[in-house]
Amino acid sequence: MIMLWAVPFLRPFRYCCETRLHKVYPVITVVNFILLGLTLHSLKSITFNDLFFALVTGFEEAVEKTEQLLLGVAALVAICVVWKFKDRVFEVLGVENAASLFGDFRDWATCWSMKRFHPVELFIWKVEGLPSARLHSLNDVFCEVSLGYNVAMKTRVHHRAGHSCVFKETLQLNFDPYDTEHRLTISIKSQEVVGAADIVQLQLGAEQVRRLEERMEGAASRTIGWGSKADPAVWAPSNFQCMDLVPAGKIYLRFVKAD
């Protein structure tokens, strides 16, 4: 039967049949069924009914296996979708910093070791040239910083700061210099009656933070955190890097490796 279906592609039949396949194959199919009927009629060990029900059984098993395969593929796709959007799902459920619950490949590969992290102190001096979040009032400015597994941290709100604000605040972060996925996000926001409105933003990759990172002289005797406000050398303008905010404005930052 298969040989008959292959005849139109063999010489010398190919040249006369290649443009008439839509007519040739129905004839070949009818001839095949006639030959099959004659063969089954001459055989005593198998009948046409046996062949028919065997084909039906095989088709039924194929449908069942295909259904099981499709259900398995659908389950895998559903798991991948849930895993892809797990952070948003947990955010909707009110779970803060949901990424730390599952981690990523580096966490599983290192058995959740913290050796690749080291503490970094971020000094925020001031911001300038901020656009207005509201047309009818001045900005009530505060800064929100997030990086990877660190809990999002916020400075205090500076009421009616307007287009510029002097923060002089420090934040401590766990920093992974080899993390190429997470970015340090510094958001300048305006406090509203309910929630906050984004004004400007700055994002820095791990390599950028590593280049800006410095070691502070006399770190052993320096007060970390709020006490550093009393040290004028810490807040010397020459120590800070001016960076452009998006969409407008400038921010003055400093990164110190807090060993």
From TrEMBL:
CDD domains, alphabetically? Answer: C2
* Keywords annotated in UniProt: Membrane, Transmembrane, Transmembrane helix
Membrane spanning residue stretches = 24-43
Organism encoding this protein: Symbiodinium pilosum
Give the lineage. Answer: Eukaryota, Sar, Alveolata, Dinophyceae, Suessiales
Keyword Transmembrane helix listed? yes
Keyword check for Membrane = yes
Descriptive protein name: C2 domain-containing protein
- SUPFAM superfamilies reported in the protein's UniProt record: C2 domain (Calcium/lipid-binding domain, CaLB) (SSF49562)
Indicate the segments annotated as coiled coil, or none if absent: none
InterPro entries in the record: C2_dom, C2_domain_sf
Q: Which Pfam families match?
A: C2 (PF00168)
Which ranges carry the C2 domain?
121-204
